[in-house]
Amino acid sequence: MAGRSALRAALAAAGWDGAHALLPGEQGRPDLPHGFTGSVTHKDGQALAIARRSTGTQTLGIDSEVLGTRERLTIARKVLTPEELARWGQTSSWPALLQSFSLKEAIYKALHPHVPRYIGFDEAHIDPALRITMTLREGEGPFELTGWWWWEGADGPSRRLVSICAVRPV
Fold it and tell me: What is the phi-psi region of residue 143: left when phi exceeds 0, alpha when psi lies from -120 to 50, beta otherwise?
């Protein structure tokens, strides 16, 4: 409910007139109004959304994570490619791992309109300069991906990470 409200607000800020209901679409994702792209995320009682008028075939994805009190470093082998894992292993930082996890979640949300299937974490590679390379198992693409992330709040367990990805077929 909060996610849909956040999405309605983001769509309205992007110029949507609100004339049509935001109904659940494929796999529960919101069916966005024609002429708009957007994404929604919710975590620990906060819902966030991003939306804009469509410009061609570009799509957006958003994810949010909370730092928390429990470091789950064991997810590294599931989330990171071998090259990412080797680089991350130099610090084994929970915030750095969470950044990769969150940005990959945003990537998958942004890619879903173009690639409507489960995409494994190993199909996306993020380099230190935030350049994203996709190696999609079924050969979809190519895509141009741009990602961003930032931290909100003071240091501590309630610190929130927000990640956004824009995807455009090339």
Answer: beta
Confidence (pTM): 0.93
Q: What is the 3-state secondary structure (H, E, C) of 24-80?
A: ECHHHCECCCCCEEEEEEEECCEEEEEEEECCCCCEEEEEEEECCCCCCHHHHHHHC
| Tens-place pLDDT, residues 101-137 | 999 999 999 999 999 999 999 999 999 999 999 999 9
Superfamily of structural domain 2-169: 4'-phosphopantetheinyl transferase domain (3.90.470.20)
Q: Encoding tokens for residue 169?
A: 């077929």
**CA-angle at 63, arms to 136 and 2, nearest 5°:** 135
Domain limits, the chain: 2-169
Contact 132, 124 (CB under 8 A): yes
